[in-house]
Write a structure and sequence with these properties.
The chain is an alpha/beta fold. It has a single domain, classed as 3-Layer(aba) Sandwich (Rossmann fold). The protein has ten helices and twelve strands. β4, α5 (about 130-145) and β5 (about 150-155) form a beta-alpha-beta unit. The radius of gyration is 19 Å and the shape is globular. Mean pLDDT is about 95; it is low at about 1-10.
């Protein structure tokens, strides 16, 4: 028993992390990068099951990576989006409060309007669609908890267990391998990080216990999605498909999508003493894990 631990009270390991969404892109990667983890298999919509799972995990941190991220699906079924992304996050907070654990919540750069870009931690979210609004509501629940941290990211990568739903990079790699023609959006500006780099930064945040409430992490380059597609295509010299540069507005599904989705990371770099890699190196990291 550690020094100062009351008799009869279980000691919680300092850096043990319980992960929601551990089968998703980031959750599965973090489970490989973090040294002492447990998986929370409970549905975040089931508060009693979640409390039981968190209590049994003996975790001092919860990495809350579970989310409904399909923008179109969220727009078609807002009740489901809010049940998972908002109320599910409230349940995670309630379970953490009951156990005394910290919560690190994975949020998104698209909580902002996407009209300006260069968003800082102090900027006020202005979500444009159901997915983004549900994530902002989740942020509010996290920030109402004194041990909650919001980590906003632009996430790209390939699932370490293989494709599970064709995210952007999985779709891109599969298209390059199959010589499939692609539309490349020139007006969506991002500075994403790979799942592996984000997982490394998560480990540092947890180990440092910096006490910050909102942090932004992203690559050092601001590029269009078209630029990223072409950077990746350059690594497939045999690719014979056609890349057509287009506007994201060409997706005629009625969903409003933010365009300037890039984050300012100056505060995080200073507070955590970290550097942000280039997009070229991030693509290399992703391809190294294919």
């Amino acid at each position: 028993m550690g020094a100062g631990t009351p008799v009869g009270k279980k000691e919680i390991p300092e850096h043990r992390v319980a992960i929601t969404g551990a089968r998703g892109l980031l959750g599965a990667t973090a489970a490989r990068v973090l040294s002492d983890v447990s998986v929370l298999d409970a549905d975040v919509r089931d508060i009693e099951a979640l409390k039981k799972a968190v209590g049994a995990s003996d975790a001092s941190w919860i990495l809350h990576a579970a989310a409904k991220t399909d923008v179109g699906a969220c727009e078609r079924d807002p009740d489901e989006a809010y049940a998972v992304n908002a109320e599910g996050t409230k349940n995670v907070v309630d379970a953490a409060r009951a156990s005394g654990a910290h919560v690190l919540y994975i949020s998104t750069a698209s909580v902002f309007s996407g009209k300006e870009g260069n968003y800082r931690e102090t900027d006020v979210p202005a979500p444009e669609n159901v997915y983004n609004k549900s994530k902002v509501k989740g942020e509010e629940y996290i920030l109402a908890y004194e041990k909650g941290i919001v980590l906003r990211v632009n996430l790209i990568g390939v699932h370490p267990d293989g494709s599970r739903g064709k995210n952007f990079m999985e779709w891109l790699v599969d298209s390059l391998r199959a010589n499939t023609d692609m539309n490349a959006f020139t007006d969506v500006m991002v500075n994403p990080l790979s799942n592996w780099t984000i997982a490394d930064h998560i480990k540092k945040i947890i180990e440092q216990g910096s006490g910050e409430r909102i942090l932004h992490i992203a690559s050092s380059d601001v590029l269009s999605k078209a630029d990223i597609i072409e950077m990746a295509a350059a690594r497939f010299p045999a690719y014979s498909g056609t890349i057509t540069r287009a506007s994201v507005d060409s997706i005629a599904d009625g969903v409003r999508r933010p365009k300037q989705m890039w984050l300012n990371c100056d505060y995080t770099k200073e507070r955590l003493g970290i550097t942000m890699p280039s997009m070229d190196s991030e693509i290399e990291t992703i391809f190294a894990h294919l």
